[in-house]
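Help needed: design a sequence for this.
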């Protein structure tokens, strides 16, 4: 039996749950391979968001949200803590990584995969920017705008992370035609 009933009576696909766990674990492992690490959190990794993005594309935004939020919680629990402000904890971890689920909004059509990836990473960027504004607004010197500073800081590592993710997704799509199609 590969399906079970959850508490709402909806069927839960065991294959999807196992794949989600594997993708979260793979994302966590890849997050330890850092090409660049910013001083107050954030880093350019060896494509750590790609497993979550692939999962969201394969299984949809709703299930991708589950994987992204769990991955974000793991990032908080297992990684360095740059802030203990409640807004920062929520925005920098479960919310930011949950936004990666937006990659699954458009299905698995090749041209839409990159649009979804852009939206997912853009969502993560916005979440980190909000956190940066809240946390650093009181510590910036006079005349420095917290929004601009947070956008520049977070963009400095998320833009390269986006480019790496797209390059990996492109390479994987050429290697395996049905990578973005779930197996039931």
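Sure. Designed sequence:
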């Amino acid at each position: 039996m590969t399906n079970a009933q959850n508490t709402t009576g909806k069927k839960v696909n065991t294959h999807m749950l196992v794949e989600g766990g594997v993708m979260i674990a793979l994302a966590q492992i890849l997050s330890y391979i850092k090409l660049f690490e910013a001083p107050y959190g954030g880093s350019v990794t060896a494509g750590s968001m790609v497993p979550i993005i692939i999962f969201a594309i394969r299984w949809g935004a709703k299930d991708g949200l589950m994987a992204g939020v769990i991955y974000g919680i793991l990032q908080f629990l297992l990684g360095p803590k740059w802030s203990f402000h409640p807004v920062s904890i929520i925005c920098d971890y479960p919310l930011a990584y949950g936004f990666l689920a937006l990659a699954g909004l458009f299905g698995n059509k090749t041209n839409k995969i990159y649009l979804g990836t852009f939206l997912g990473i853009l969502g993560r960027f916005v979440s980190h920017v909000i956190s940066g504004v809240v946390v650093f607004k009181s510590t910036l010197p006079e005349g420095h705008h917290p929004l601009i500073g947070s956008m520049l800081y977070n963009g400095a590592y998320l833009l390269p992370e986006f480019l790496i993710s797209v390059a990996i997704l492109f390479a994987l799509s050429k290697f395996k035609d049905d990578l973005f199609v779930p197996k039931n």
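The helical segments are 14-31, 50-59, 61-78, 86-98, 110-136, 146-175.
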